[in-house]
Amino acid sequence: MEIEAEEKCKASPLYWLEKYTETCDDHWRDKGTAPYARFPKMPYFPRLFELMMSERRLFIPKSREMMLSWAVIGYAVWLCQWHPATEAIVQSEKLDKSIESVSGRENPGYARTLWERQDEFLKRNHPLSKASTDMPGDLFAWENGSSLRGVASGADQFRQYHPALVILDEAAFLPGAAASYDTAEAVASQIIVVSSAGPSWFGEVCQSILDGA
After folding, report:
1. What is the pLDDT of residues 37-77, one digit of tens each?
2. How many Å apart are CA 150 and CA 145, to the nearest integer?
3. Cα–Cα distance, 159 to 184 (Å, whole number)
4. Which of 95, 68, 101, 42 has the alpha carbon at shortest distance from 197?
5. Exposure pattern of 58-92 as b/e (b: 16+ CB <10 Å)?
């Protein structure tokens, strides 16, 4: 049973997220819901994950409550967990925001939550390089040599790495987003750019994609 589940999770990040781990809702008290829950089944998720698994360069416009930040970090965690020696980087406007996506500080970040809330057999199968509580806020690392790192804005943040995946988070509000993208273009196997709406380089690129469709 566990072997079959492991293989299905390895084949599909969305299957893993929906069946074998949980996210955390910071507003659960206001909503009167449980703090942790399985990944929601949104109608656009199958296509989104298909694109994340197939496209080398992907721009994703979003709005609030779409769970796209969780989805993108979930994909990054899956990539690191099931693919040894994988380096992923998430860049946000400020380091504190990137830390929220990775290990976190006072509260567990997105990546740490997804690892800690997955079923016990998966944690045994995919151990960390050290205890999750001992990880620095901007780094989450596995025993298999994979890691997810959070960085602040700035194109120079990528120069010392050769990541399999770079995520530009809230790119419409990320200073120097175009320069960051250009730098990542030279070193990253895959780049995912995600943001809510705002007049910006991100908006111009998305519009040009739509105009050319």
Report:
1. 899 999 999 999 999 999 999 999 998 778 999 999 999 99
2. 16
3. 8
4. 68
5. bbbbbeeebbbbbbbbbbbbbbbbbbeebbbbbbb
Give the pair of three-digit tokens for residue 66: 């779409």
Query: Which residues, in sequence order, are CB contacts of 94 under 8 Å at separation 6+?
Result: 152, 153
Task: Report CA-CA distances (Å) from 67 to 64, 165, 184.
Answer: 8, 19, 25
Q: What is d(CA 152, CA 95) in angstroms, rounded to the nearest whole number?
A: 4
Return the structure tokens found at 95: 């380091």
Q: What is the pTM of this model?
A: 0.94
Interior/surface letters 190-209, b for 16+ CB within 10 angstroms, e for the rest: bbbbbbbeeebbbbebbeee
Tokens representing residue 99 in the block: 């830390």
What percent of the residues of the chain are helix, what percent strand, and what percent coil, each to the nearest 5?
Answer: 45, 20, 35
* Cβ neighbours for 47, distance < 8 A, ≥ 6 positions apart: none
Asked if 97 and 169 count as a contact pair (C-beta separation under 8 A), the reply is: yes
| Lookup: tokens for 108 | 């567990």
Provide the CATH number for the domain formed by 2-212 in this structure: 3.40.50.300
Q: What is the DSSP letter of 40?
A: P
Q: Which residue has the higher pLDDT, 32 or 122?
A: 122
* Amino acid symbol at 44: Y
Q: Which tokens is 98 given? A: 């990137």
Whether pLDDT at 26 is above 90: no
Are 156 and 183 in contact by the 8 Å Cβ rule? The answer is yes
